[in-house]
Design a protein that fits this description.
Elements: H1 2-6, H2 8-74, E1 79-83, H3 85-97, E2 105-110, H4 121-127, H5 132-137, E3 140-145, E4 151-155, E5 169-170, E6 185-192, E7 195-202, E8 205-213, H6 227-255, E9 260-265, H7 267-276, E10 283-286, H8 293-304, E11 307-311
Parallel strand pairs: 6-9, 9-10
Antiparallel strand pairs: 1-11, 2-3, 2-5, 3-4, 4-11, 6-7, 7-8
Length: 312
């Protein structure tokens, strides 16, 4: 009665309500704390597992890199050599001297730019895992025997057509000397946009020479002309130079009995001259021949009559 008169009853009820609310909040806090502790533990466990997995991934990647490196090493050419002159003749003679059973040796033309080298079953078995190296050597002549003693590729200066090489397996390698070495009477020319030289040869010996340089502007205007006009003038000068080259080649052919013509020099200029020359070149090659016409011809000659040997 006294509590009601003094207002204590309502205060006690409010205190009781607050105490109940406090207990509920304390219980919720403790439950949330437990959940957070469990979540922290779970997160820590997950982080440990992630770390273990990352370590395992790094270990496996390292093993994969070592395997790839071992494979790359195992598939490297056993030997690669640039051959010319007497050394080229010696190696060629050794390969040409090989004799096998009736179907123990094969010579295959592997073209450049082919999607993939696709040997027959017998050749694939002879090459084994080294088959992948053939694409790296292309274009080439591939020589393989059935005993595994010979497995080599060569890139001759004069690349034969497939019809020039016997199809299938025979008792020897089909390697014509004229694909690799200077033979007979032939002409070899070097041409740039402003230079031309041609020699007539008997084997290794040059028996005739003609050469000249033309006044052709550089590739960029240095003032005084618009670039378009400058390029037209330069193109006209190059056309005149190439016309003189064609006339010189025609004169050489009229004066000498020539079996074959080889064109070397600046790639785009070679192609233009080859397309417009009456005599079809037996082979062309882009070479970096510098100096005056005679020096450029000597450089081109040495570069052209070079073969790379790949031992698979």
């Amino acid at each position: 009665m006294l509590d009601e008169l003094l207002g204590r009853a309502s205060l006690k009820e409010r205190i009781a309500e607050l105490e109940d609310e406090t207990e509920r909040l304390r219980a919720r806090y403790e439950a949330e704390t437990d959940r957070r502790a469990e979540a922290t533990t779970a997160r820590q466990d997950a982080e440990k597992r992630v770390n273990r997995l990352e370590d395992r991934i790094a270990q496996l990647e390292g093993e994969l890199e070592r395997v790839d490196a071992d494979e790359d090493d195992s598939l490297a050419f056993r030997r690669r050599e640039t051959l010319r002159g007497g050394r080229l003749a010696d190696v060629l003679d050794r390969l040409r001297s090989v004799r096998t059973g009736p179907e123990g040796a094969v010579t295959t033309v592997v073209e450049s730019g082919a999607d993939e080298f696709a040997p027959d079953d017998e050749l694939a078995a002879a090459l084994g895992d080294r088959e992948a190296l053939v694409d790296a050597a292309a274009p080439c002549l591939l020589c393989v025997d059935d005993a595994g003693l010979v497995s080599a590729a060569l890139d001759p200066p004069v690349f034969p057509d497939e019809g020039d090489v016997p199809a299938g397996w025979t008792d020897r390698f089909a390697l014509d000397r004229e694909w690799f070495l200077p033979t007979g009477r032939y002409a070899l020319a070097v041409v740039r946009a402003d230079l031309f030289a041609v020699g007539v040869y008997e084997g290794d010996d040059r028996i005739e020479y003609r050469g000249f340089e033309s006044d052709v502007k550089g590739s960029h205007s240095k003032g005084g002309f618009s670039q378009a006009r400058f390029e037209r003038i330069r193109d006209d000068q190059i056309d005149a130079h190439l016309e003189r080259c064609r006339e010189t080649l025609a004169d050489v052919y009229d004066d000498a009995e020539i079996d074959r013509l080889f064109l070397t020099g600046q790639r785009g200029v070679i192609e233009t001259l080859a397309d417009e020359t009456a005599v079809e070149p037996a082979a062309t090659a882009a070479v970096d021949a510098t100096g005056d016409p005679k020096s450029a011809l000597e450089d081109a000659y040495g570069t052209f009559w070079t073969t790379t040997l790949f031992v698979l």
